[in-house]
Amino acid sequence: MSPDPGGKAQEMGIEVKRRTKQESRAPKALDPKILMARSFGESPMLSERVAQGNLPPVAERLPENPLVVVPIDTIGVYGGSLRRALTGDIVQTAGVNKTLSENLMGLERPLPNRVVLNLAEHYEYQDAGRVAIFKIRKGIKWSDGHPFGVDDILFWYHDIEMNENARNSPLPPSVWLVDGEPIGIEKVDDYTLKVFSPKPLGRVLFALSLDTVAYPKHVLSQYHPKYNANATYEAFRDSTTSAQLIMKPGIPRLSAWVPVEWIRGQRLVYARNPYYWKVDSAGNQLPYADRLVFNVIQDPQVILLKFVNGELDLFGRYAQIDMFPTLQSEERRGKFELRITGPERGPAFYLNWDTPKPALREAFRNKAVRVALSQAINREEINQIVYHGLLEPSGYAFARSSPYFSDALYKKYSAYDPHLAKELLDNAGYRDSDGDGFREFKDGSRFELNLDVTPGARVSICELVADHWREVGVKVNLNIGLRDMIWPRRNNGEFDVHTWSLEAPADPLGRLNDWAIMGPNVPFWHRNAFTEGPDWLHEATDLIMKVLTTVDEKEVFGYMMRVHELHSENVPVIVVGFPYHVWGASTRLGNVPYQNSASSVHRGWSRPVYHEQIYIKQ
Question: With the C-alpha atoms ordered 66, 70, 72, 78, is the resulting torsion angle positive or negative?
Answer without folding.
Answer: positive
